Amino acid sequence: MIDQTEVPALTDYYELRNTIDDGDLTLYMGMSHTSWLIKAVTGFPYTHVGQAMWMGPRLFILEAVHHGVAIDLFSRSVEQYNGRVDLFRITDITEDQRRIMTSSALSYIGLKYSYSGALKLALRLLLHEPRKAAQFVKMPKGLFCSQYIARNCKDAGITIERNVSTEWTLPKDFALSARTRRVARLKI
Description:
By secondary structure, this protein is of the alpha+beta class. 34% of the residues lie in helices and 27% in strands.
């Protein structure tokens, strides 16, 4: 769980790159209009989440973005993001769980971004409805960012937030979870 008052020093991505593991998370604090809206609805600075994956010598980020569930170079994601990027690590994670998270993440590549799912979550928050109950769809037509990463965690047997359904997970749930810790604020 993060200390809300602590402002981490910027750490050079290239100094930290070789310590990043499959399944590590990136939490983003955006500056766009969409990010501002997400912050207003959630009351929290994190507006996006992604998952790290190594493929040979290359480090990638797996994420659900406006054009769908996709893979991109980790360095490009950090360099081009309009805002701050924090690296988080899931605690007490096994190598087998990392492998399952990655396999799960890859199985969703190409799905559309779920604007309707994100809107339903925003309405649920605005109406102060609980985020516990949700019908789980094995292979949805689309996913939004935190829903995508929560599914990967669930498939690996990792519970991020016990009182929140995988379908209603927010980026802030990853930051506030007892199962994660912030490693660094990245810069390139």
